[in-house]
Amino acid sequence: MYSSSSRKAISYKDRKAIASRRVRRIISLLLFFTLYLFFSNFVSTPLKVVSTSMKPLLSPGDRILYSRMLVDRQSRFIQGDESELSRGDLVIISPPYFRENQMIIDKINPVIRFFTFQKIQFSSYSRYSWETSYLIKRVVAIPGDTIRVTGHRASLKVAGEKNFVSEDQLLKGIYRVNINQNPDDWESGYPLDGSTQEYKLGEKEFFVLGDNRGVGSDSSIWGPLPKERIIGKVFFRYWPFSGFSFL
Question: Is 145 exposed, middle or buried, given 0-12, 13-18 or 19+ CB atoms closer than 10 A?
């Protein structure tokens, strides 16, 4: 241990240098934390896939990256079309049934996730097990499109066109759909029969579906999704290593 006399022996110049180093360290930590929050919340956010709704492309346990900046015009500091999203894009959404957290909870959650390595975040409500804060879905139709779904397959009439075309024809080779057949006695018109009525999307409305049709919830169940419910666009899968690729 140092005696009081040894502490007093430190010169004013040395004490000033020590204090200066401490200040620089604190500033460096604050700067790092600020950059981390910005980068992880807007530029590149990691996410673990937990459902089978996007098979065959994504499986439970896959790790992906998404970016808010790819869909949020204000966060990109540029002007442009209201829709930066295209048919076929893979997106992270907040489902319509998810109750938004109080503002203070949303503000502190990034800090909590930082110090718990993305494992913990707070909620304003006691939630059901199925009430997830995010889903991974595919944009099938954009504002101005008219869409209908029959047997889990979508047909689109693009704004200005007269005829419907199947999503396979319109979006050739962009993604592969897995169709889950309904039970033999499941008649058309029953709930979750994989069909929807014809619907024209309004301004800032999108129609999103899973690639594994008939698994999980999507626009075929709760209808068009408002633009503000789209959190970010998926652009990369980094795990498993064999699936390392841009999406």
Answer: buried
Rounded Cα distance between 41 and 36, Å, is: 8
Rg (CA), the chain: 24
Cβ–Cβ under 8 Å, residues 199 and 148: yes
Distance CA 75, CA 114 (A): 21
Q: Token pair of 187, please?
A: 């008649």
**Contact (Cβ atoms closer than 8 angstroms) between residue 213 and residue 179:** yes
Residue 32 contacts by C-beta under 8 Å, 6 or more apart in sequence? none
- Which tokens in the block code for residue 35? 């950059």
pLDDT digits (tens, 9 = 90+) for 198-230: 999 999 999 999 999 988 899 999 999 999 999
pTM attached to this predicted model:
0.79
User: Measured between alpha carbons, how far is 34 from 37 in angstroms, rounded to an integer?
Assistant: 5
Three-state SS at 14: helix
In a 13 Å sphere around the CA of 106, the CA atoms on its Cβ side amount to 7
